[in-house]
Write a structure and sequence with these properties.
With 439 residues, the chain is mainly alpha-helical. The chain contains 14 helices and three strands. The chain has a three-stranded antiparallel β-sheet with strand order 1-3-2, with no helix packed on it. The longest helix is centred in the first third of the chain and has 32 residues, at 8-39. The protein is globular and about 70 Å long.
């Protein structure tokens, strides 16, 4: 897996991602402490609102940012957004009112909503070989999991010698270092095939996404992932400290078990994906999530929670990691940023539903009932993925062009032309606005 780091451009981009992630993790810890300083016992309300603002920014801003990104040099855009994020974090230690936190969080997450999809869309252009790209996806998943483990430990160590306001400085350094690493390489910037209006550019990714069967299946996979992930993230502390009466250390161990399962899957997936189709792997992942949630009400003690959380982490990574391969297969290079932005917005819309639902159900109907509801959502998502994502999912698709002139250059693409039919690698674009019907 680490062999792909021999590619200088990808090595710098991965280092930029990792450093920015650790900085963001430090800011997360510092933000919680800042919320407590300003709001005291109401800090949970402040953090919950900030999380909701984050998801709303992701859902609303990502497609709009992708529309403007189509006209901007990709490297310049990524660097500018890193600088915006650094500037916002630099202001956080100086806030004196809760509403100021909300405003800055919205600006910060709006910049992230522009940065992350554009960054993700760059990797397949840097690593055109599918095996290399698969390993990059697993390495990225490992980076996220490592960040969740390393950042709290690093924050705890730093807090022994500095105040929490200084943790924000670590985040600023992270974003500046990320920008410097992006500047140090030359990035490909595919150009749009034809000029498009703002509405066309804003909605293009969503229209490609929803018109592609495998991506409709990916959206169902995202809902199952969000149902299980929200249960873990929102209710682990409630289960461990509220139900079992254990300590914060036990909560950390439970979350580490979840992260450990995710990391193990990320390490195993590259070799598996060389031999097994994405659909089979991802469906297996969400089936594992649904079964884990179904067994949740049977958990009676901490010893049985740990293996369940490990299994849910395993299923999470199995279902989530190959998604980038589907996006890559389903778009032309010039449409890739818009499609990654659509995935970013739609997947976070799933989390925007499941986060508050997991918290509200846990407080009103109890944890067993919450497990049941989340299991129902995950099971429905499995059924939807099976329905929308056909088992036969070839790249080359036979289709017709009834209105296309006989001398149009497009007929040279692919082969096996018969009348107004031919076959080639099929994606949704101007000439192919709809997916051909099976048969």
């Amino acid at each position: 897996m680490l062999g792909i780091l021999s590619n200088r451009t990808y090595r710098h981009l991965f280092a930029a991602q990792l450093i920015a992630l650790i900085g963001t993790g430090l800011a997360t810890v510092a933000l919680g402490l800042l919320a407590y300083e300003l709001a005291g016992p109401d800090a949970g309300v402040v953090l919950g609102t900030a999380l909701a603002i984050k998801m709303i920014a992701f859902v609303l801003v990502a497609p709009v940012a992708a529309a403007f990104a189509e006209r901007l040099p990709r490297r310049a855009m990524l660097v500018c957004l890193d600088m915006v994020r650094a500037a916002v974090v630099l202001l956080l230690p100086f806030v004196t009112e809760v509403w100021q936190i909300y405003v800055l969080i919205f600006v910060l997450q709006s910049a992230s909503a522009g940065f992350t999809p554009a960054f993700q869309a760059t990797i397949p252009d840097v690593l055109p070989d599918e095996k290399d790209y698969t390993r990059a996806l697993s390495l990225s998943r490992l980076a996220y999991d490592l960040e969740s483990l390393v950042s709290p430990i690093l924050a705890a160590a730093l807090l022994t010698v500095v105040g929490f306001h200084e943790l924000f400085a670590g985040t600023v350094v992270g974003f500046l270092a990320s920008a410097a690493l992006v500047v140090s390489v030359t990035l490909p910037t595919p150009h749009a095939s034809a000029p498009r209006g703002i509405y066309e550019r804003t909605t293009r990714g969503l229209r490609i996404y929803l018109a592609t069967p495998r991506l409709r299946g990916l959206l169902a996979v995202g809902m199952a992932v969000a149902a299980s992930g929200a249960m873990v993230i929102v209710n682990t502390v409630v289960i461990v400290q509220g139900e079992f009466g254990l300590t914060q250390r036990s909560t950390a161990i439970a979350l580490a078990a979840y992260g450990g399962g995710s990391m193990m899957a990320a390490l195993m997936l590259p070799r598996i994906l060389d031999r097994v189709q994405d659909r089979s792997i991802m469906l297996a992942g969400i089936c594992l999530l649904a079964l884990g949630l179904v067994s949740g009400p049977l958990v009676r003690d901490f010893e049985s929670l740990i293996p369940l959380w490990f299994v849910l982490g395993l299923g999470y990574s199995i279902a989530q990691t190959p998604g980038g391969r589907l996006l890559r297969r389903s778009s032309r290079a010039e449409d890739r940023p818009a499609l990654f932005a659509a995935q970013f917005a739609l997947s976070h819309a799933c989390w925007l539903i499941t986060y508050p639902l997991a918290g509200w159900l846990g407080a009103t109907v109890g944890l067993a009932g919450t497990f049941v509801v989340m299991a129902v959502i995950a099971t429905a998502a499995v059924a939807a993925a099976l329905r929308f994502w056909p088992s036969s999912d070839p790249d080359v698709v036979d289709h017709h062009h009834h209105g296309l002139a006989d001398d149009d250059p497009h007929w040279a693409e692919g082969g096996h032309r018969l009348g107004h039919r031919h076959a080639h690698g099929f994606v949704i674009d101007e000439l192919h606005p709809q997916w051909p019907r099976q048969g």
